Predict the structure.
Amino acid sequence: MPQKFAFFLGCVAPLRYPGIELATREIFKSMGVELTELEGAGCCPAPGVIRSFDQTTWLALAARNLALAEAQKTDIMTICNGCYGSMFEANHILQHHPKELKKVNDVLGKIGMKYDGTIKVRHFAEVLYKDIGMEKIKAQVKTPLNYTVGVHYGCHFVKPTRVKQLDDPEKPKILDELVEVTGAKSINYRDKMMCCGAGGGVRSRDAATALRMTEEKLKNLKAVNVQMIVDVCPFCHLQYDRSQKDLPGYNIPVVHLSQLYGMAFGLPREKLGLEAHETKFNL
C-alpha cells in the first residue's frame, strides 16, 4: 500500500516560493509517496501571535486543519518548521488534555466539524529520514551534487525534544545526513543552531534586530566558505534570502531541502523555482 500524507502548504511557500511546493510534490511523487490536497486549509496558525491572545482560538484554528486531514484518514505533512511546531504542539495538547479537546470541538461544532485526535503531524524531513529512508533516497539521485552546504535546522524542527524525539537538540544530524545523501558536503559552522532571526515575531516587530541576527549567521556561514544555505522552512528561507539584499557582501544562495533534492533527482530547473529567489543561484 503506497504511503500517503495530507499536504499542508502553509502561507509562505505557495505565496512567495512556489518552487518549494512544486519541488516537494515532484520528489515525493518520484519516491511513490502520495500527497493529497488539503482543501480548505487555513493558517497553522502561528502561536506567537494568536496564542498570545487566546489559546482556545489558536487550538481551534489548528484543530480545523487537523480535522481536514483526519477526514481523509491520513497524517498531515508540513514543509515548514513553524507550521510543524504550531500544529504539532496543538495536536499534542488536544491528544493529552480532554478538556481542551472538548472546548475546541464545541467551537468546531458551530461549523459542522469535529476532531477526534487520531492523526499525527509530520515534518517532511522527518518523513524522508524515517519513513522513506536513505537507501531509497539515494537510489533517486541522478545528478550527484558537489557543493559545500551550510544546513540551517531552525528553531521548531527538533524542539521541544521531549515530545518530538527526533534528534539530539544540541547536535542533531538528521538534516546533515539528508543533505549528504545527495553527494553534497554539510559543513559545521559557529552557532549552527542559532535562530535565523525571523522567528517568534521578531521580523515583524523589530526588523533591525532580526537583520542583525541574520547577519551573524551569514558571517559564520561565509567564514567556512559554504556555497549555499539549505533550510527546511520557507520562513527561515525568506529571512536568509530577502535579508541578503540589505546586507552588503553577502550573496549565498538559499535552497530548501526539497529544491536540493529536485536538483539531485534531475528535475528541470523550471520546476525548482530558483528564479523567485533574491539570492541568485549561479552554481
Notes: The two ends are 39 Å apart (CA to CA). The first helix runs from residue 12 to 16.
